[in-house]
């Protein structure tokens, strides 16, 4: 009796872990994500709405058009890549949105479900439309590769004893929200920003190159952008983007190695 119960528990645990395991498109890396997409999206839509209400959305029409134009093209590229691979289901509940906030912060991010914010402080560093496509392709790649879910899973296990997201929200709403914001690079004002792991960074670079190329932007521009970023050109403000996305020679060398693959997806407009 005890033995069969033990087996039943093992089978349940294994089934759960297999179900929680998914594969990242393009790189094929296996990931463990304990949080259902429905929970990630409802949290995301809530936090995104709150963020827009408590920050100054720019009235500079030119910047808005620029960000929405580039974002829309990357969105189409992502959707067509996922459709080609039979993965469209993963994007079906996305509600894409691209906004620009007025801030000296050198920052940009994309929450699950395609909720993107670009800070005006990063525009002097992106410089061109293609430079902006590097950043947006990279941030959108973090979202569609579900890096946030993976990081939230790790943080919930490390800091909250493996609590479910919904339960953590109920019992420790403030801690859970600030954890969420720091995972997505939004937490500067709370003094907490968690850098993405090297694995997530290079994976987002890799996917981002493919998406920007499919969107009609020359992926070689990624090398120029990350070089500018590592030189700290542009804004005077502390570069939040740098603390979540450390830029160094290794990153640039890896991007250079991936350029030939990305160029196969590139059709200039
Ligand atoms: Zn990143």
Helix/strand layout:
Layout: H1 2-20, E1 21-23, E2 30-32, H2 37-54, H3 61-84, E3 97-101, E4 108-111, E5 115-119, H4 123-126, H5 129-144, H6 147-160, H7 165-171, H8 173-183, H9 198-214, H10 221-231, H11 240-244, H12 249-263
Parallel strand pairs: 3-5
Antiparallel strand pairs: 1-2, 4-5
Bound molecules: zinc ion.
Zinc ion (ZN) is lined by residues 138, 142, 196, 201, 204, 245.
Overall description:
This protein is globular. A 3-stranded mixed beta sheet has the order 3-5-4, sandwiched between helices. A hairpin with a 3-residue loop joins strand 4 and strand 5. The longest helix is centred in the first third of the chain and has 24 residues. Helix 5 packs across helix 9, helix 9 packs parallel to helix 12 and helix 10 runs antiparallel to helix 12. The termini are far apart. About 2% of the residues have low confidence. It is mostly helical and 269 residues long. The site of zinc ion has 6 residues, from helix 5 and helix 9.
